[in-house]
TrEMBL record:
Intervals holding TPR repeats: 331-364
GO molecular function: cyclosporin A binding; peptidyl-prolyl cis-trans isomerase activity; unfolded protein binding
Enzyme class: isomerase
Stated name of the protein: peptidylprolyl isomerase
Domain of life: Eukaryota
Organism: Maudiozyma exigua (Yeast)
One Pfam family cited in the UniProt record for this chain: Pro_isomerase
All residue ranges annotated as the PPIase cyclophilin-type domain in the record: 8-197
Catalytic activity: [protein]-peptidylproline (omega=180) = [protein]-peptidylproline (omega=0)
């Protein structure tokens, strides 16, 4: 087998790029499965199947079974790499690089070609293991695989574990959260749009979150997947949420507003996951609550810069509805809502917000200018309306 130990999938959901998953393959404990997966990612092996030469590859293969908190499954390169549709055949096929010419000439009730032996029949003690799917019989592995999204003790010592996810765990979680039918078949196509070798000089693209480690954000997108601190340590959890917020602010300063938004949402997720009840830890409850107000405020600002005006108003209202919010933060929220209503040409609402901003921050001279400007606009609109009505009756 090649010295390359890592391979990647680029995933798209409903034709929209989602991100990259990187796997580390367990060459030393599952050499057959690891070598098979490696070459199916490279797409450098072809076989004659049913009289036609066919490249064996995971490229354009789609996930056909998703079970939340259990696993996501793909790799049926016989039936699962054509048009995305549910059928009685999907999930019944597969072909490994070990398929022989004689094997491929033989039609079977279950077209799984090139079965190979089980290896590393270990225990599924955590999510993000990469394992082979078999037919339920020993040594019946081909190309189908699954990635665990939780523990799976009922599979212990039954399936070959040959790798693990080292990057792109949030992509796995995005796939896991797709809507499925009663059989676990997704409503939208979750496809491997590209795959191949990977090394640490290559990027890990992500399109629905931000994995930039600017300002020290080393944390997983989903708090439950992070192993950088004890989840019972509220101080460490608070520090993590602050670091993620600071990462968003660093991106905001670079005018990378979309990724700043992702970071602020990530920080909010950590806050909501780890904030202790007041009766459990009052001091940390207060700290987390104050940080949440800052995040809401930052989300309103970055939403405004992204021209997501309804979101700007929503997050500003979250600030105003937060227990213990101070006048300074109220003033910011009203100010941003006022600016947003001006853009939406809802001048009466804008004026109301500016006046409330002034009440909460009386010494701010900028707001005086805003109030004067919007009052002039309202008066001009009234005069324009009067003139139009007068013309109508003339």
């Amino acid at each position: 087998m090649s010295e390359i130990e890592e391979v990647f999938f680029d995933i798209a959901i409903d034709n929209e790029n989602t991100g990259r998953i990187v796997f580390e393959l367990f060459k030393s404990t599952a050499a057959l499965a690891a070598d098979n997966f490696y070459h199916l990612c490279k797409g450098d092996v072809s076989k004659i199947i049913n009289g036609k030469e066919r490249k064996l590859t995971y490229k354009n293969n789609f996930f056909h079974r998703i079970v939340k908190t259990f696993m996501i499954q793909a790799g049926d390169i016989i039936y699962g790499s054509e048009a995305f549709e549910k059928s009685d055949d999907i999930g019944k096929g597969g072909c490994s690089i070990y398929a022989t010419e004689e094997d491929l000439k033989t039609m079977k009730d279950l077209p799984c070609y090139g079965n190979f032996k089980d290896e590393n029949l270990g225990e599924f003690t955590e999510p993000f293991y990469l394992a082979m799917v078999n037919t339920g019989e020993p040594d019946s592995n081909t190309s189908q695989f699954f990635i665990t999204t939780g523990t799976a003790p009922h599979l212990n010592n039954k399936n070959t574990i040959f790798g693990k996810v080292i990057h792109g765990k949030s992509v796995i979680r995005t796939i896991e959260r797709c809507t499925v039918d009663e059989d676990g078949f997704p409503s939208k196509c979750v496809k491997v749009v590209d795959c191949g070798e990977w090394n640490d000089t290559m990027p890990v693209p992500l399109y629905n979150a931000c994995n930039d480690q600017i300002s020290g954000d080393i944390y997983e997108e989903y708090p439950d997947d992070d192993k950088n601190f004890d989840p019972e340590d509220f101080n460490k959890a608070y520090d993590a949420a602050c670091i993620i917020k600071d990462s968003g602010s660093a991106l905001f300063k670079l005018k990378d507003f979309q990724n700043a938004l992702f970071k602020y949402k990530k920080s909010l997720s950590y806050i909501n996951t780890f904030i202790p009840e007041e009766e459990v830890d009052k001091d940390n409850h207060i700290k987390f609550s104050e940080l949440k107000i800052k995040i809401y405020s930052n989300l309103s600002l970055v939403s405004y810069n992204l021209k997501k005006y309804d979101d700007c108003i929503m997050y500003s209202r979250y600030v105003l509805d937060s227990p213990g919010v101070i006048n300074k933060d109220k003033a910011k929220a009203y100010y941003r809502m006022g600016n947003t209503y001006v853009v939406k040409k809802a001048y009466d609402d804008a004026l109301s917000c500016y006046i409330l901003c002034k009440e909460n921050n009386p010494n701010d001279k900028v707001i005086d200018t805003k109030i004067e400007s919007v009052e002039n606009t309202i008066e001009q609109n009234k005069e324009r309306t009067k003139k139009n009505i007068a013309k109508f009756f003339t």
